[in-house]
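ok, trying the design again with the full structure, not the truncated one.
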């Protein structure tokens, strides 16, 4: 099964993220523990980092959003309070392009954000799942909220259905951008596909603040990223994003254990 993740070069330097290490861990854990075939959709220039990924058998696909200019213009008007909006959006919205890079015989593909750790192989279970109408996603902060508060950080995609719907989705996004909340792709996906996505078992999008789970298959550092977790573990009063700190404080013991698992793949 093809696994896609996406990134823009312009968002690589955000404080307390360290995307380079997170991408390396995602790829190395996938190669060690799964049969996934990694593909990176990338908006940026070629460099040594990308060559290192290619050396790990990652297929790097250079791609800019076909609606980049329209999105940038809307961002200047309606997201003027967020000067980093387009730098992040250039990568975040790339997930909507995944179906364009699947072969005609691909029924399904896995998309994840870059801040994941593959604990075990998801492919057998994902292949046995019913093909969703469009995509399957788990809940965001509440494990039982997938119907209303889904998280687009891990999605099992129905490639053909989402490819057929892509043009209409982009038109909807651009026409309704002002009314969408301040997030990126997620509010648009929630509104456009409302009532039309399936539930993904939470073990495929497990969050550290939910605690430790022997059943977790894909761990998602939704909230504080490993670089911030390391500082929070060593400096209890470390000042970082307020929401991140709140999520960390839900379960510091689990964060320490999951961080140790993540750190293993940096060696």
């Amino acid at each position: 099964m093809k696994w896609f993740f996406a990134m823009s070069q312009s968002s690589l330097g955000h404080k307390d993220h360290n995307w380079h290490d997170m991408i390396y861990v995602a790829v190395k854990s996938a190669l060690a523990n799964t049969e996934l075939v990694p593909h990176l959709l990338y908006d940026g220039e070629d460099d040594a980092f990308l060559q290192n990924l290619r050396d790990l058998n990652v297929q790097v696909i250079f791609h800019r959003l076909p609606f980049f200019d329209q999105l940038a213009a809307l961002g200047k008007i309606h997201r003027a309070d967020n000067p980093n909006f387009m730098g992040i959006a250039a990568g975040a919205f790339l997930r909507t392009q995944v179906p364009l890079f699947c072969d005609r015989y691909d029924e399904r593909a896995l998309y994840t954000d870059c801040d994941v750790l593959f604990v075990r192989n998801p492919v057998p279970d994902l292949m046995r799942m019913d093909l969703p109408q469009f995509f399957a996603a788990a809940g965001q902060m509440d494990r039982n909220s997938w119907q209303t508060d889904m998280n687009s950080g891990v999605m099992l995609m129905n490639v053909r259905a989402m490819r057929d719907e892509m043009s209409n989705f982009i038109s909807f996004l651009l026409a309704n951008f002002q009314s969408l909340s301040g997030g990126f792709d997620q509010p648009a996906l929630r509104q456009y596909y409302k009532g039309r996505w399936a539930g993904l078992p939470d073990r495929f999008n497990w969050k550290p603040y939910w605690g430790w789970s022997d059943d977790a298959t894909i761990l998602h550092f939704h909230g504080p990223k490993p670089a911030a977790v390391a500082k929070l573990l060593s400096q209890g009063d470390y000042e970082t994003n307020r929401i991140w700190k709140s999520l960390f404080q839900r379960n510091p013991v689990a964060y320490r254990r999951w961080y140790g698992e993540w750190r293993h793949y940096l060696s």
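Keeping the full-length input from now on. The first strand starts at residue 2 and ends at 8.
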